[in-house]
Amino acid sequence: MANSLSWDQDTVVDRISNLPTSLICHILSFLKTKEAIATSILSSRWKPLWILVPTIYLRDDCRQEPISFTHIVYRVLALHIAPLLRYFSLTWYSPCNSFHLDAWIHTALARNVEQLRLEIYLNGQDGTEFYNGRRFELPRSFYFCRTVVVLELTDGIVLDPPPSFQFPSLKIMSLCEILYRPHHSFSMLLCGCPVLQDLSVTREGTDGMIKFNVSVPTLKRLSIEFYTYERDLPDYKLEIYAPALEYFGFRGDLRNVVFLKKLANLVEAHVEVRAVEFLQEDWVREHKIYYGDRVFKLVRALNHAKFFSLYPGDKECIGFGSIFPSRFQKLARLNFKVNKSNWYVLQALLVVAPDLEVLVLDKHFHFNEDELCWTEPSDDPGYLSSRLTTFKFNGFEGLEHEMEFVKYIINETRSLKAITINVSDKQLKESILEELLMFSRINSTTCLLTVE
Fold first, then answer.
1. Number of domains within the chain
2. Do the beta carbons of residue 122 and residue 134 sit within 8 Å?
3. DSSP assignment, residue 134?
4. Domain containing residue 421
5. Separation of first and last alpha carbons in the chain
6. H helices within 111-149, ranges in order?
7. How many whole angstroms separate alpha carbon 152 and alpha carbon 155?
8. What does 248-292 look like in DSSP terms, one character per residue?
9. For a tag site, which of 154, 356, 370, 410 has the least CB within 10 Å?
10. Could you tell me the sign of the dihedral formed by the alpha carbons of 151, 145, 110, 114, in that order?
Protein backbone atom coordinates (compact mmCIF):
# COMPACT_ATOMS: atom_id res chain seq x y z
CA MET A 1 0.00 0.00 0.00
CA ALA A 2 2.90 2.33 -0.70
CA ASN A 3 0.70 4.71 -2.68
CA SER A 4 -1.54 5.28 0.32
CA LEU A 5 1.27 6.79 2.38
CA SER A 6 2.19 10.50 2.40
CA TRP A 7 5.33 11.83 4.06
CA ASP A 8 4.83 14.95 6.16
CA GLN A 9 8.18 15.70 7.77
CA ASP A 10 8.66 12.66 10.03
CA THR A 11 4.99 11.56 10.05
CA VAL A 12 3.47 8.96 7.78
CA VAL A 13 -0.20 9.60 6.93
CA ASP A 14 -2.34 6.72 5.64
CA ARG A 15 -4.91 8.61 3.59
CA ILE A 16 -6.64 5.63 2.00
CA SER A 17 -7.53 4.10 5.38
CA ASN A 18 -9.30 7.34 6.28
CA LEU A 19 -11.62 7.11 3.29
CA PRO A 20 -15.26 6.10 3.83
CA THR A 21 -15.87 2.35 4.00
CA SER A 22 -18.08 2.44 0.90
CA LEU A 23 -15.31 4.04 -1.15
CA ILE A 24 -12.66 1.58 0.03
CA CYS A 25 -14.97 -1.32 -0.84
CA HIS A 26 -15.44 0.18 -4.28
CA ILE A 27 -11.66 0.28 -4.75
CA LEU A 28 -11.34 -3.34 -3.56
CA SER A 29 -14.02 -4.43 -6.03
CA PHE A 30 -11.47 -3.99 -8.84
CA LEU A 31 -9.23 -6.65 -7.27
CA LYS A 32 -9.57 -10.41 -7.38
CA THR A 33 -11.08 -11.80 -4.19
CA LYS A 34 -7.76 -13.39 -3.22
CA GLU A 35 -6.06 -10.00 -3.44
CA ALA A 36 -8.87 -8.23 -1.60
CA ILE A 37 -8.61 -10.74 1.26
CA ALA A 38 -4.85 -10.12 1.41
CA THR A 39 -5.49 -6.46 2.35
CA SER A 40 -7.00 -7.61 5.65
CA ILE A 41 -3.49 -7.95 7.13
CA LEU A 42 -2.79 -4.23 6.72
CA SER A 43 -4.55 -3.14 9.92
CA SER A 44 -7.63 -3.70 12.02
CA ARG A 45 -9.37 -1.07 9.87
CA TRP A 46 -8.88 -3.22 6.76
CA LYS A 47 -9.51 -6.65 8.29
CA PRO A 48 -13.32 -6.80 7.84
CA LEU A 49 -13.63 -4.78 4.64
CA TRP A 50 -13.26 -7.55 2.04
CA ILE A 51 -16.46 -9.24 3.23
CA LEU A 52 -18.40 -6.09 2.28
CA VAL A 53 -17.03 -5.86 -1.27
CA PRO A 54 -19.89 -6.39 -3.78
CA THR A 55 -17.76 -8.61 -6.07
CA ILE A 56 -16.49 -12.19 -5.78
CA TYR A 57 -13.83 -13.46 -8.17
CA LEU A 58 -12.88 -17.12 -7.61
CA ARG A 59 -10.32 -18.91 -9.76
CA ASP A 60 -8.97 -22.42 -9.31
CA ASP A 61 -5.35 -22.03 -10.40
CA CYS A 62 -4.69 -25.82 -10.45
CA ARG A 63 -1.80 -25.40 -8.02
CA GLN A 64 -3.85 -26.38 -5.00
CA GLU A 65 -5.54 -29.64 -4.16
CA PRO A 66 -9.18 -29.50 -5.37
CA ILE A 67 -10.46 -30.47 -1.92
CA SER A 68 -8.48 -27.66 -0.30
CA PHE A 69 -9.70 -25.05 -2.75
CA THR A 70 -13.29 -26.29 -2.41
CA HIS A 71 -13.03 -25.61 1.32
CA ILE A 72 -11.68 -22.13 0.62
CA VAL A 73 -14.62 -21.30 -1.67
CA TYR A 74 -17.16 -22.39 0.95
CA ARG A 75 -15.32 -20.34 3.57
CA VAL A 76 -15.26 -17.21 1.39
CA LEU A 77 -18.97 -17.48 0.57
CA ALA A 78 -19.86 -18.07 4.23
CA LEU A 79 -17.97 -14.99 5.44
CA HIS A 80 -19.02 -12.68 2.63
CA ILE A 81 -21.96 -10.55 3.78
CA ALA A 82 -22.43 -7.89 1.11
CA PRO A 83 -26.21 -7.70 0.67
CA LEU A 84 -25.98 -7.06 -3.08
CA LEU A 85 -23.58 -9.00 -5.28
CA ARG A 86 -22.78 -6.97 -8.36
CA TYR A 87 -20.28 -9.43 -9.86
CA PHE A 88 -19.65 -13.15 -9.35
CA SER A 89 -16.99 -14.96 -11.39
CA LEU A 90 -16.10 -18.63 -11.03
CA THR A 91 -13.33 -20.27 -13.05
CA TRP A 92 -12.79 -23.97 -12.29
CA TYR A 93 -10.16 -26.26 -13.81
CA SER A 94 -10.08 -29.27 -11.47
CA PRO A 95 -12.26 -32.39 -11.13
CA CYS A 96 -15.19 -31.46 -8.91
CA ASN A 97 -18.54 -32.81 -7.79
CA SER A 98 -21.28 -30.83 -9.50
CA PHE A 99 -23.03 -30.56 -6.14
CA HIS A 100 -20.44 -28.00 -5.00
CA LEU A 101 -20.74 -25.91 -8.15
CA ASP A 102 -24.53 -25.94 -7.86
CA ALA A 103 -24.28 -24.71 -4.27
CA TRP A 104 -21.90 -21.86 -5.12
CA ILE A 105 -23.99 -20.69 -8.06
CA HIS A 106 -27.14 -20.87 -5.95
CA THR A 107 -25.45 -18.69 -3.32
CA ALA A 108 -24.65 -16.08 -5.96
CA LEU A 109 -28.22 -16.12 -7.22
CA ALA A 110 -29.56 -15.73 -3.68
CA ARG A 111 -27.41 -12.58 -3.30
CA ASN A 112 -29.20 -10.98 -6.28
CA VAL A 113 -26.16 -11.18 -8.54
CA GLU A 114 -26.12 -8.69 -11.42
CA GLN A 115 -23.10 -9.93 -13.41
CA LEU A 116 -22.47 -13.67 -13.55
CA ARG A 117 -19.46 -15.28 -15.22
CA LEU A 118 -18.89 -19.07 -15.27
CA GLU A 119 -15.92 -20.83 -16.89
CA ILE A 120 -15.81 -24.51 -15.99
CA TYR A 121 -13.63 -27.48 -17.03
CA LEU A 122 -14.57 -30.46 -14.88
CA ASN A 123 -11.74 -32.56 -16.31
CA GLY A 124 -9.24 -29.73 -16.39
CA GLN A 125 -7.78 -28.24 -19.52
CA ASP A 126 -6.41 -30.93 -21.77
CA GLY A 127 -4.14 -28.61 -23.75
CA THR A 128 -6.26 -28.64 -26.91
CA GLU A 129 -7.88 -25.53 -28.34
CA PHE A 130 -11.38 -26.74 -27.52
CA TYR A 131 -12.54 -28.49 -24.39
CA ASN A 132 -13.80 -32.05 -24.93
CA GLY A 133 -14.04 -33.25 -21.34
CA ARG A 134 -16.96 -33.83 -18.98
CA ARG A 135 -19.54 -31.06 -19.07
CA PHE A 136 -21.24 -29.22 -16.22
CA GLU A 137 -25.01 -28.94 -16.45
CA LEU A 138 -26.32 -25.69 -15.00
CA PRO A 139 -28.68 -26.09 -12.01
CA ARG A 140 -32.38 -25.46 -12.55
CA SER A 141 -32.33 -22.45 -10.22
CA PHE A 142 -30.00 -20.70 -12.66
CA TYR A 143 -32.82 -20.27 -15.19
CA PHE A 144 -34.99 -18.33 -12.76
CA CYS A 145 -32.60 -15.55 -11.83
CA ARG A 146 -34.48 -12.27 -12.06
CA THR A 147 -31.56 -9.97 -11.25
CA VAL A 148 -28.75 -10.97 -13.63
CA VAL A 149 -28.02 -8.22 -16.18
CA VAL A 150 -24.75 -9.54 -17.65
CA LEU A 151 -24.18 -13.28 -18.25
CA GLU A 152 -21.04 -14.99 -19.55
CA LEU A 153 -20.81 -18.77 -20.00
CA THR A 154 -17.60 -20.35 -21.28
CA ASP A 155 -16.48 -23.81 -22.41
CA GLY A 156 -17.41 -26.95 -20.42
CA ILE A 157 -21.03 -26.00 -19.70
CA VAL A 158 -24.25 -27.64 -20.90
CA LEU A 159 -27.23 -25.43 -21.65
CA ASP A 160 -30.51 -27.31 -21.17
CA PRO A 161 -33.26 -24.86 -20.11
CA PRO A 162 -36.65 -25.97 -18.79
CA PRO A 163 -39.79 -25.51 -20.93
CA SER A 164 -40.72 -22.27 -19.15
CA PHE A 165 -38.28 -19.73 -17.66
CA GLN A 166 -37.22 -16.12 -18.02
CA PHE A 167 -34.30 -13.76 -17.42
CA PRO A 168 -36.31 -10.52 -17.13
CA SER A 169 -33.27 -8.27 -16.51
CA LEU A 170 -30.68 -9.84 -18.84
CA LYS A 171 -29.27 -7.31 -21.31
CA ILE A 172 -25.79 -8.62 -22.19
CA MET A 173 -24.97 -12.29 -22.83
CA SER A 174 -21.83 -14.08 -24.03
CA LEU A 175 -21.86 -17.80 -24.91
CA CYS A 176 -18.45 -19.23 -25.74
CA GLU A 177 -17.97 -22.87 -26.79
CA ILE A 178 -20.75 -24.22 -24.58
CA LEU A 179 -22.87 -27.27 -25.45
CA TYR A 180 -26.55 -26.89 -26.34
CA ARG A 181 -28.70 -29.87 -25.37
CA PRO A 182 -31.08 -30.29 -27.03
CA HIS A 183 -30.05 -28.27 -30.07
CA HIS A 184 -33.09 -26.00 -29.93
CA SER A 185 -32.07 -24.97 -26.40
CA PHE A 186 -30.19 -22.03 -27.94
CA SER A 187 -33.39 -20.60 -29.40
CA MET A 188 -35.25 -21.42 -26.18
CA LEU A 189 -32.73 -19.43 -24.18
CA LEU A 190 -33.18 -16.36 -26.37
CA CYS A 191 -36.95 -16.59 -26.04
CA GLY A 192 -36.49 -16.24 -22.29
CA CYS A 193 -34.56 -12.96 -22.61
CA PRO A 194 -37.21 -10.27 -23.30
CA VAL A 195 -34.85 -7.26 -22.94
CA LEU A 196 -31.62 -8.68 -24.39
CA GLN A 197 -29.55 -6.01 -26.20
CA ASP A 198 -26.07 -7.49 -26.67
CA LEU A 199 -25.35 -11.09 -27.70
CA SER A 200 -21.98 -12.74 -28.40
CA VAL A 201 -21.81 -16.36 -29.60
CA THR A 202 -18.64 -18.38 -30.23
CA ARG A 203 -18.83 -22.01 -31.29
CA GLU A 204 -16.99 -24.71 -33.20
CA GLY A 205 -18.68 -27.28 -35.36
CA THR A 206 -18.19 -30.42 -33.32
CA ASP A 207 -21.39 -29.80 -31.31
CA GLY A 208 -23.47 -31.08 -34.24
CA MET A 209 -25.76 -28.06 -34.53
CA ILE A 210 -26.74 -27.27 -38.10
CA LYS A 211 -29.29 -24.50 -37.54
CA PHE A 212 -29.22 -21.42 -35.35
CA ASN A 213 -32.17 -19.09 -34.94
CA VAL A 214 -31.54 -15.68 -33.40
CA SER A 215 -34.91 -14.02 -32.94
CA VAL A 216 -34.60 -11.07 -30.56
CA PRO A 217 -36.56 -7.90 -31.42
CA THR A 218 -34.69 -5.87 -28.75
CA LEU A 219 -31.18 -6.88 -29.86
CA LYS A 220 -28.82 -4.01 -30.71
CA ARG A 221 -25.44 -5.78 -30.89
CA LEU A 222 -24.73 -9.24 -32.30
CA SER A 223 -21.23 -10.78 -32.51
CA ILE A 224 -20.76 -14.28 -33.92
CA GLU A 225 -17.68 -16.49 -34.29
CA PHE A 226 -18.14 -19.86 -36.00
CA TYR A 227 -15.31 -22.30 -36.67
CA THR A 228 -15.23 -25.81 -38.12
CA TYR A 229 -12.29 -28.19 -37.88
CA GLU A 230 -13.64 -31.44 -39.32
CA ARG A 231 -14.02 -32.35 -42.98
CA ASP A 232 -17.35 -34.16 -42.69
CA LEU A 233 -19.36 -31.49 -40.90
CA PRO A 234 -22.75 -30.65 -42.44
CA ASP A 235 -23.60 -27.19 -43.68
CA TYR A 236 -25.11 -24.87 -41.07
CA LYS A 237 -27.73 -22.15 -41.38
CA LEU A 238 -28.01 -19.04 -39.26
CA GLU A 239 -31.33 -17.17 -39.35
CA ILE A 240 -31.43 -13.74 -37.74
CA TYR A 241 -34.45 -11.64 -36.84
CA ALA A 242 -33.15 -8.50 -35.14
CA PRO A 243 -34.76 -5.39 -36.65
CA ALA A 244 -33.25 -3.09 -33.99
CA LEU A 245 -29.67 -4.25 -34.67
CA GLU A 246 -27.08 -1.44 -34.62
CA TYR A 247 -23.88 -3.54 -34.69
CA PHE A 248 -23.19 -6.84 -36.41
CA GLY A 249 -19.94 -8.76 -36.29
CA PHE A 250 -19.03 -12.07 -37.92
CA ARG A 251 -15.72 -13.89 -37.83
CA GLY A 252 -14.87 -17.40 -38.92
CA ASP A 253 -16.10 -20.10 -41.27
CA LEU A 254 -19.01 -18.68 -43.24
CA ARG A 255 -21.96 -20.77 -44.32
CA ASN A 256 -25.58 -19.70 -44.90
CA VAL A 257 -26.50 -16.50 -43.01
CA VAL A 258 -30.02 -15.17 -43.55
CA PHE A 259 -31.46 -11.91 -42.20
CA LEU A 260 -35.23 -12.22 -41.97
CA LYS A 261 -35.71 -8.44 -41.93
CA LYS A 262 -33.68 -5.55 -43.33
CA LEU A 263 -31.24 -3.96 -40.91
CA ALA A 264 -32.52 -0.41 -41.25
CA ASN A 265 -30.93 0.69 -37.95
CA LEU A 266 -27.48 -0.77 -38.61
CA VAL A 267 -24.59 1.61 -37.86
CA GLU A 268 -21.49 -0.60 -37.75
CA ALA A 269 -20.55 -3.98 -39.22
CA HIS A 270 -17.43 -6.14 -39.08
CA VAL A 271 -17.03 -9.22 -41.30
CA GLU A 272 -13.91 -11.37 -41.29
CA VAL A 273 -14.08 -14.65 -43.18
CA ARG A 274 -11.47 -17.03 -41.83
CA ALA A 275 -12.30 -20.48 -43.13
CA VAL A 276 -10.02 -23.31 -42.08
CA GLU A 277 -7.53 -23.44 -44.93
CA PHE A 278 -7.53 -27.17 -45.63
CA LEU A 279 -11.34 -27.26 -45.73
CA GLN A 280 -11.97 -24.52 -48.27
CA GLU A 281 -11.39 -26.51 -51.45
CA ASP A 282 -13.19 -29.56 -50.04
CA TRP A 283 -16.37 -27.60 -49.33
CA VAL A 284 -16.44 -25.99 -52.74
CA ARG A 285 -15.74 -29.23 -54.59
CA GLU A 286 -17.82 -31.70 -52.59
CA HIS A 287 -20.74 -29.58 -51.44
CA LYS A 288 -20.80 -26.86 -54.10
CA ILE A 289 -20.72 -24.24 -51.36
CA TYR A 290 -19.27 -21.16 -53.00
CA TYR A 291 -17.84 -18.82 -50.43
CA GLY A 292 -18.05 -15.88 -52.82
CA ASP A 293 -21.83 -16.19 -53.12
CA ARG A 294 -22.20 -16.25 -49.37
CA VAL A 295 -19.74 -13.47 -48.69
CA PHE A 296 -21.52 -11.16 -51.11
CA LYS A 297 -24.95 -12.19 -49.85
CA LEU A 298 -23.92 -11.30 -46.30
CA VAL A 299 -22.32 -8.01 -47.35
CA ARG A 300 -25.40 -6.96 -49.30
CA ALA A 301 -27.52 -7.42 -46.18
CA LEU A 302 -25.28 -4.93 -44.36
CA ASN A 303 -25.61 -2.10 -46.85
CA HIS A 304 -27.14 0.29 -44.30
CA ALA A 305 -23.92 0.38 -42.26
CA LYS A 306 -22.17 3.69 -41.73
CA PHE A 307 -18.93 2.07 -40.58
CA PHE A 308 -17.86 -1.18 -42.24
CA SER A 309 -14.81 -3.39 -41.67
CA LEU A 310 -14.43 -6.19 -44.22
CA TYR A 311 -12.00 -9.05 -44.82
CA PRO A 312 -13.67 -11.25 -47.44
CA GLY A 313 -11.15 -14.06 -47.17
CA ASP A 314 -8.55 -15.64 -49.43
CA LYS A 315 -8.98 -16.65 -53.06
CA GLU A 316 -10.59 -19.99 -52.17
CA CYS A 317 -13.41 -18.05 -50.51
CA ILE A 318 -14.16 -15.58 -53.26
CA GLY A 319 -13.53 -17.46 -56.49
CA PHE A 320 -17.23 -17.38 -57.24
CA GLY A 321 -20.16 -15.10 -56.60
CA SER A 322 -21.87 -12.00 -57.92
CA ILE A 323 -20.65 -8.55 -56.97
CA PHE A 324 -22.70 -6.14 -54.88
CA PRO A 325 -25.84 -5.02 -56.72
CA SER A 326 -27.06 -2.71 -53.94
CA ARG A 327 -25.70 0.69 -52.90
CA PHE A 328 -24.06 1.50 -49.59
CA GLN A 329 -25.65 4.91 -49.42
CA LYS A 330 -24.75 5.60 -45.77
CA LEU A 331 -21.20 4.20 -45.75
CA ALA A 332 -18.81 6.81 -44.34
CA ARG A 333 -15.83 4.68 -43.29
CA LEU A 334 -14.50 1.49 -44.87
CA ASN A 335 -11.72 -0.63 -43.36
CA PHE A 336 -10.68 -3.27 -45.87
CA LYS A 337 -8.13 -6.07 -45.44
CA VAL A 338 -6.60 -6.60 -48.84
CA ASN A 339 -4.82 -9.71 -50.08
CA LYS A 340 -3.53 -10.89 -53.42
CA SER A 341 -6.96 -11.96 -54.63
CA ASN A 342 -9.61 -9.58 -53.37
CA TRP A 343 -8.77 -6.25 -55.00
CA TYR A 344 -11.83 -6.52 -57.22
CA VAL A 345 -14.06 -6.72 -54.14
CA LEU A 346 -12.63 -3.39 -52.98
CA GLN A 347 -13.25 -1.89 -56.41
CA ALA A 348 -16.85 -3.09 -56.35
CA LEU A 349 -17.44 -1.51 -52.95
CA LEU A 350 -15.99 1.84 -54.00
CA VAL A 351 -18.44 1.94 -56.89
CA VAL A 352 -21.47 1.70 -54.61
CA ALA A 353 -20.35 3.96 -51.73
CA PRO A 354 -21.02 7.53 -52.93
CA ASP A 355 -20.62 9.17 -49.50
CA LEU A 356 -17.43 7.42 -48.35
CA GLU A 357 -15.26 9.76 -46.26
CA VAL A 358 -12.56 7.49 -44.80
CA LEU A 359 -10.83 4.56 -46.53
CA VAL A 360 -8.34 2.38 -44.62
CA LEU A 361 -6.52 -0.51 -46.29
CA ASP A 362 -4.69 -3.16 -44.26
CA LYS A 363 -2.35 -5.55 -46.04
CA HIS A 364 -0.80 -8.39 -44.09
CA PHE A 365 0.77 -10.46 -46.84
CA HIS A 366 3.82 -9.99 -49.04
CA PHE A 367 2.95 -10.14 -52.72
CA ASN A 368 4.74 -10.75 -55.97
CA GLU A 369 3.97 -8.48 -58.89
CA ASP A 370 2.37 -11.27 -60.89
CA GLU A 371 -0.02 -12.13 -58.04
CA LEU A 372 -1.72 -8.75 -57.91
CA CYS A 373 -4.82 -7.86 -59.82
CA TRP A 374 -5.66 -4.18 -59.21
CA THR A 375 -6.66 -2.48 -62.46
CA GLU A 376 -7.69 1.12 -62.74
CA PRO A 377 -11.38 1.39 -63.66
CA SER A 378 -12.58 3.10 -66.80
CA ASP A 379 -13.30 6.81 -66.50
CA ASP A 380 -16.72 7.15 -65.00
CA PRO A 381 -17.89 10.32 -63.21
CA GLY A 382 -18.88 9.50 -59.67
CA TYR A 383 -16.94 6.23 -59.49
CA LEU A 384 -15.05 7.37 -56.40
CA SER A 385 -16.77 9.24 -53.60
CA SER A 386 -16.37 13.00 -53.91
CA ARG A 387 -16.48 13.21 -50.10
CA LEU A 388 -13.37 11.11 -49.45
CA THR A 389 -11.19 13.15 -47.06
CA THR A 390 -8.95 10.53 -45.42
CA PHE A 391 -7.01 7.65 -46.94
CA LYS A 392 -4.65 5.27 -45.09
CA PHE A 393 -2.70 2.31 -46.46
CA ASN A 394 -1.10 -0.04 -43.89
CA GLY A 395 1.55 -2.52 -45.04
CA PHE A 396 2.48 -0.56 -48.19
CA GLU A 397 5.39 -2.17 -50.10
CA GLY A 398 5.78 0.26 -52.97
CA LEU A 399 4.77 -2.26 -55.65
CA GLU A 400 3.72 -0.88 -59.00
CA HIS A 401 0.06 -1.70 -58.63
CA GLU A 402 0.01 -0.18 -55.13
CA MET A 403 1.49 3.04 -56.47
CA GLU A 404 -1.13 3.06 -59.21
CA PHE A 405 -3.91 2.64 -56.67
CA VAL A 406 -2.62 5.50 -54.48
CA LYS A 407 -2.19 7.67 -57.57
CA TYR A 408 -5.75 6.90 -58.57
CA ILE A 409 -7.04 7.91 -55.13
CA ILE A 410 -5.07 11.17 -55.20
CA ASN A 411 -6.03 12.22 -58.71
CA GLU A 412 -9.70 11.28 -58.54
CA THR A 413 -10.54 12.77 -55.14
CA ARG A 414 -11.10 16.52 -54.92
CA SER A 415 -11.65 16.80 -51.14
CA LEU A 416 -8.76 14.66 -49.87
CA LYS A 417 -7.22 16.19 -46.74
CA ALA A 418 -4.98 13.46 -45.30
CA ILE A 419 -3.03 10.55 -46.78
CA THR A 420 -1.12 8.20 -44.47
CA ILE A 421 1.13 5.51 -45.93
CA ASN A 422 2.46 2.94 -43.47
CA VAL A 423 5.50 1.35 -45.11
CA SER A 424 6.33 -2.25 -44.30
CA ASP A 425 10.02 -1.77 -45.19
CA LYS A 426 11.33 1.33 -43.41
CA GLN A 427 14.32 1.53 -45.75
CA LEU A 428 11.95 2.37 -48.61
CA LYS A 429 10.34 5.25 -46.75
CA GLU A 430 12.28 8.08 -48.41
CA SER A 431 12.01 6.75 -51.97
CA ILE A 432 8.28 6.10 -51.59
CA LEU A 433 7.72 9.60 -50.26
CA GLU A 434 9.60 11.13 -53.21
CA GLU A 435 7.60 9.14 -55.71
CA LEU A 436 4.27 10.01 -54.11
CA LEU A 437 5.11 13.71 -54.11
CA MET A 438 5.39 13.56 -57.89
CA PHE A 439 1.68 12.84 -58.25
CA SER A 440 -0.21 15.79 -59.66
CA ARG A 441 -2.48 16.67 -56.76
CA ILE A 442 -0.24 15.80 -53.84
CA ASN A 443 1.28 19.28 -53.65
CA SER A 444 -2.05 20.83 -52.79
CA THR A 445 -1.91 22.80 -49.55
CA THR A 446 -5.19 21.23 -48.47
CA CYS A 447 -3.80 17.66 -48.34
CA LEU A 448 -1.33 16.38 -45.74
CA LEU A 449 0.84 13.42 -46.83
CA THR A 450 2.44 11.26 -44.14
CA VAL A 451 4.73 8.30 -44.77
CA GLU A 452 5.52 6.35 -41.62
1. 1
2. yes
3. P
4. 380-451
5. 42
6. none
7. 10
8. EEEEE---EEEESS--TT--EEEEEE---HHHHHHHHHHH---HH
9. 370
10. positive
Query: Per-residue confidence of the chain (452 residues) as pLDDT tens digits?
Result: 444 444 454 555 667 776 776 777 777 777 777 777 777 767 776 767 777 788 888 888 665 565 678 888 888 888 888 878 899 999 888 877 889 999 999 999 999 999 999 998 887 664 455 566 678 899 999 999 999 999 999 888 998 899 889 999 999 999 998 888 877 889 999 999 999 999 999 987 656 677 889 999 999 999 999 877 666 555 678 899 999 999 999 998 887 889 999 999 999 999 998 765 545 555 555 555 566 777 888 888 999 999 999 987 765 555 545 556 678 889 999 999 887 777 777 887 888 888 999 999 998 665 554 455 555 555 554 567 778 899 999 988 878 778 888 888 887 777 888 889 888 777 778 787 777 777 655 545 577 888 88
DSSP per position, 147-172 = S--EEEEEESEEE---SS---TT--E
**Residue 17, in any domain of the structure:** no
HEC-encoded secondary structure of 200-257: EEEEEHHHCCCEEEEECCCCCEEEEEEECCCCCCCCCEEEEECCCCCEEEEEECCCEE
- Alpha carbons 219 and 356: distance in angstroms, whole number: 27
Within 304-343, strands assigned E span 307-311, 333-338
Q: How many CB atoms are closer than 10 A to CB 431?
A: 12
Residue 400 lies in a domain: yes
Domain membership flag for residue 138: no
